[in-house]
Amino acid sequence: MAVQQLTGEDLADKVAAGVPDAVEGMADGVLRVKAPKIADVAGFMKSDAGLDFNFLNSISAVDYISHFEVVYHLTSLTKQHTAIVKTRLDGREDLSLPSVYHLWRGADFQEREIWDLMGISFSGHPNMKRIMLWEGFEGHPLRKDYL
Predict the structure, then answer these.
(1) CATH number of the domain to which 42 belongs
(2) Average pLDDT of every residue of the chain
(3) Which of 8, 24, 82, 138 is exposed most, by the fewest CB atoms within 10 A?
(4) Given a cut of 70, is residue 29 above it in pLDDT?
(5) Domain that holds residue 112
(6) Cβ atoms within 10 Å of 24's Cβ, excluding its own
(7) Band of residue 22 on the pLDDT scale cut at 50, 70, 90
(8) Interior/surface letters 29-46, b for 16+ CB within 10 angstroms, e for the rest
(9) Domain count across the chain
(10) Considering the domain boundaries, does residue 111 fall inside one?
(11) The pLDDT value given to residue 1
């Protein structure tokens, strides 16, 4: 059985239809979604039979000083395709995204690491506490404003 290649445009169209008002665009193979909708988009991408993104490779965060981006790398082991999903958080204070822990248990330590080192919390995470540094440590050392 031949595997049909999933194009970026196909992915963007399918997600936009499945999660209205969530997709901001598709560029350079990266699906950009609105921050409050990230868990809804992830849930759709996992549960849709044509997408079946059943594996979370990684979650990472990037500090661009003017904003943060959180990047999700997803794989469908059955459909043999991958996706990169990014969301943007503006500002420097009280940054939060919905957790995807309820979809992929592998998000547990990754979301905690992003909280610990970058200061982005994940609402709905069952154990949002530091994972590398001790409780009471002030600041988030991978932020570009950390001294």
Answers:
(1) 3.30.460.80
(2) 94
(3) 138
(4) yes
(5) 8-123
(6) 17
(7) very high
(8) eebbbebebbbbbbbbbb
(9) 1
(10) yes
(11) 46
